[in-house]
């Protein structure tokens, strides 16, 4: 029996902050590596390595990955959605800027907040939480607002792919919470997603005519290793574990921190300017997350439990 909590405790908050911080750094890693390693080939190496690490982890921990437990349908659905998200991101980056793509990608929490309560009533957000979600998204838009001055047809195509990536991300969360995957281990849930993506990414890379090689600089391999071991393995495994134990609508709101962490790392590591716009955006996202994760009063909590039953 899985113990589910109706709020985020200190452990969940710490894990979420660590994941979002690394995902923000990961954008810097990808940005500084993609000139040497083609994007979908980079994703192929990354996901294949993560599958190997996850298999070794499961062997060591004795976690079964291939037992018949009724999760195959939901697992393949989640895997295809996960692969679609990454395909849209990497292809979209060839048509629009990373900043524009980031804004559209982080519509994902709205997809979760709109659809998940239809299947899991306890995940329903209250008015003040919707306000917090909108405020957090507004902070992201503010942070990247300078990139929206002009739009070409090519950029609009990339923006559309980014929006599809955000929808796919939200639907992946929905698939995990509303199918038999909700009772599967975090390891098996992740295995479906990175396994399918590892199979699909090389095909897309070939279709796009990317040049394959393993002769890269030490920095490129260092970057890919971090993306693989921490990004695609450790942080995603932690995320899958949290989806099993905490409200998905609450933890999704924390992902708004990821693009802002990327901007902060850009300031620290790439000497990009620290602007009042960025500071204001950080404050808006932080306040929005606080509002989304405010605990309801006893009466509201009782009504939520009643709906869940």
From TrEMBL:
It comes from the Bacteria. SUPFAM superfamilies: Multidrug resistance efflux transporter EmrE. InterPro entries: AA-Vitamin_Transporters, EamA_dom, EmrE-like. It is a multi-pass membrane protein. Gene3D superfamilies: 1.10.3730.20. Belongs to the EamA transporter family. This is Drug/metabolite transporter (DMT)-like permease. Coiled coil: none annotated. It is found in: Membrane. Keywords: Membrane, Transmembrane, Transmembrane helix.
């Amino acid at each position: 029996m899985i113990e589910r909590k109706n709020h985020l405790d200190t452990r969940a908050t710490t894990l979420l902050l660590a994941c979002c911080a690394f995902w923000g750094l990961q954008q810097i890693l990808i940005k500084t590596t993609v000139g040497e390693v083609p994007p979908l080939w980079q994703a192929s190496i990354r996901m294949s390595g993560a599958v190997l690490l996850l298999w070794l982890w499961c062997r060591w921990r004795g976690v079964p990955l291939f037992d018949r437990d009724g999760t195959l349908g939901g697992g393949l659905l989640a895997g295809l959605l996960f692969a679609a998200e990454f395909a849209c991101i990497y292809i979209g980056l060839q048509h629009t800027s990373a900043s524009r793509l980031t804004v559209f990608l982080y519509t994902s929490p709205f997809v979760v907040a709109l659809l998940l309560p239809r299947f899991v009533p306890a995940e329903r957000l209250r008015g003040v939480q919707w306000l917090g979600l909108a405020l957090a998204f507004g902070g992201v838009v503010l942070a990247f607002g300078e990139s929206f001055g002009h739009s070409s047809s090519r950029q609009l195509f990339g923006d559309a792919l980014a929006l599809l990536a955000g929808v796919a991300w939200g639907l992946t969360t929905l698939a995990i919470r509303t199918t038999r995957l909700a009772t599967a281990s975090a390891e098996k849930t992740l295995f479906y997603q990175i396994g399918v993506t590892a199979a699909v990414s090389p095909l897309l890379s070939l279709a796009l005519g990317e040049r394959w090689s393993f002769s890269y600089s030490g920095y490129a391999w260092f970057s890919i290793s971090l993306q693989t071991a921490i990004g695609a393995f450790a942080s995603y495994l932690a995320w899958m574990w949290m989806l099993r134990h905490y409200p998905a609508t609450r933890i999704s709101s924390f992902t708004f921190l990821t693009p802002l962490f990327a901007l902060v790392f850009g300031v620290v590591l790439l000497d990009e300017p620290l602007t009042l716009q960025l500071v204001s955006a950080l404050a808006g996202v932080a306040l929005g997350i606080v509002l989304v994760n405010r605990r309801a009063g006893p009466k509201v909590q009782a009504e939520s439990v009643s709906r869940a039953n």
